[in-house]
Amino acid sequence: MHKHLNLLFLATENLLRHRTKTVVVCLCIIAILTPFITAIAISEGIRSQSLNSVNAGADLYLTSDEFGRNAAISLKYLDEIKKIFGVTKIVPRIVGRGFLQNKLTVIVGIHKEDIPEPVTCISGRVFENTNEVIVGHELAKYFHLNIGDQFSMRCQQRKVFTVVGIFSADSGIWGASMIFMPFNDAGDLFGKENVATDIQIYSLPGHNSEIATDLYDIFQNEAYRLQDKQMIELYVKKGFMLKEGVFSALYIVAIALGVPAILVTSGFGLSERKKEVGIMKATGWQTLEVLELISFEQLLISLLGATIAIVLAILWVRGFRGAFIAQFFIAEITMLPNFALPARFLPLPCFISFFFAFLLTMVGSIYSSWRASTVSPVVSLQS
User: Fold this and answer.
1) From the centroid of its chain, how far is CA 74?
2) By the 8 A CB rule, do 47 and 40 touch?
3) Mind spelling out the 3-state secondary structure of 263-301?
4) Where do the H-state alpha helices sit in the chain?
5) In which band, very low, low, confident or very high, does the pLDDT at 266 lie, cut at 50, 70 and 90?
6) Domain definitions of the chain by residue range
């Protein structure tokens, strides 16, 4: 044990003596790992927030079926749905997208009493009358909207809305550029009457099967789709897996360009290293001891580079809000978001990053060191 500690201390001394090599290899590791750790943290944070929203949402989601996809559903069945045993609450919604000048926004038409609890106004109040809206904090900041300001949407310029409240982006990352308005106003805006994009159904535990049977009797002559919370959760997970897969595929290309740099820089000063190995062999060092020393050096430099990469990734997310990379995972946001990005720095991605850095540096140095340690010390000293 004492011998291994001495080798570890000697490896630390070697890294300090060869500062140029240490700094260059660390910079290569940091450049490769920082974007990867940042992207995984943002993706995991958004995934977690999305799943929390799903778990806090309705138990069933009812829509019409059109060509195998969700379609608007008529409101004429609301009274019958309310009477189904096990149904505690139903919430019809209109969810769509529209342009406010040059910015694409999410529009939610909903009754006042059905507004989700996390949506709380930081200024103003919730809408009470026709053509009143509450807007997300980022949207209000982007257009310099204040309480009492009026605007119209590009899809229906004759309809003028009045801002009566601004809600915080803490209610969710998607709420930052969202507009809540009365249900009927949203129908007028999109030119759709007596329909909803979906009907949220809240039910008593264990009654979903009975509710599904009753809905089948109600909609026996019409095509409809009924999706439960577990199915929505599955869609969310698949969506993030797809995004992470696309990002990983693109990132592999970047790594392919960075790997040769690490392989070259980890062998920086190769002739000097051969002489060092020759001196060690001449003074009685064994080949395994030389390789262990080299392994300790790569372990320390990988640990240093990965640690700095994790710290920079945290700074990138917390300080710069994931600038230049958050847009890959969240559509329609600015280059520098005005809200705190959800991020989760899990142990596994950080451990994988360290292991990847260690593997690369070992590949770049262990073979050349082994070759130098197996030849005659005289040859190593003459090279």
Assistant:
1) 35
2) no
3) HHHCCCCHHHHHHHHHHHHHCCCCHHHHHHHHHHHHHHH
4) 2-17, 19-56, 78-82, 137-143, 183-190, 208-218, 229-265, 270-282, 287-318, 347-374, 377-382
5) low
6) 2-52+236-382, 59-228
Coil/strand/helix, residue 367? helix
User: Running DSSP on this structure, what letter comes out for residue 337?
Assistant: -
Q: Which amino acid is at 137?
A: H
Distance CA 360, CA 154 (A): 53
pTM of the entire predicted model: 0.70
The residue type found at 204 is L
Q: In whole angstroms, what is the distance from residue 150 CA to residue 318 CA?
A: 34
The CA distance from 60 to 201, in Å, is 5
**Distance in angstroms (rounded) separating the CA atoms of residues 149 and 319:** 32
Cβ–Cβ < 8 Å for 273, 360 = no
Q: Which residues contact 227 (CB under 8 A, 6 or more apart)?
A: 60, 61, 63
Q: Is 133 helix (H, G, I), strand (E, B) or coil?
A: strand
Structure tokens at 224: 């409809």
Most trustworthy range by pLDDT among 180-184, 191-195, 231-235: 180-184
The pair of structure tokens assigned to 67 is: 């060509």
Confidence band for 164, pLDDT divided at 50, 70 and 90: very high
Rg of the chain taking only CA atoms, in angstroms: 30
What single letter denotes the amino acid at residue 364? G
Q: Measure the CA–CA gap between 349 and 347, rounded to whole angstroms.
A: 6
